[in-house]
Amino acid sequence: MDTDHSLFSPNHMDKGTLAMVSNVEFQPGQKVLDLGCGYGAVGIYAAHVTGAENVTMTDIDPLAVVFAKRNAEYNSLPGIHVFQSDGLASVTEREFDLILSNPPYHADFSVPKKFIEEGFRHLKYGGSMVMVTKRYQWYKNKLQSVFGGVKVIEENGYFVFISQKRAVRKTESKNRQKLSKKLRRKYFADC
Fold first, then answer.
1. In whole angstroms, what is the distance from residue 170 CA to residue 149 CA?
2. For domain 15-188, is the CATH number 2.60.40.420?
3. 3-state DSSP call for residue 88?
């Protein structure tokens, strides 16, 4: 992997990312989004299992995108889709099986909030969002409120959060009626 000192964890994959990847079972043919890909380590790893044509990597940093593209080429995976995007703003593809992210957690929660809410709409039913961070309560609460559930695994001082987009059941459909119109549009517009 080629990287730059200005990118996150330039010398090796950080412990949080390793914890996240170790708790994911990639399958051939799965559609995977590496959200906030940095220099591309997670997406490239996923592409070796799922197939390069099934992996999308995005980052807001243009330098990260340059290195992610370069690393995809170095690893003979030119079929990976790599492009610059502010969160999922430029991601037109839907129906992802997995969205993986190690969001910046030293800032406010606006970035992960956007990742979680938009990520929900980009997953297919049965698809999962997997995030890793050192912060616990806010992520647990936010994923619980958007997805209706979250599995939390603590590993090496990090928390790996796994939330699955589940099909709407009749009882959930009734509960949906109790939500305000604004919340129904926000969480169920693309369902």
1. 17
2. no
3. coil
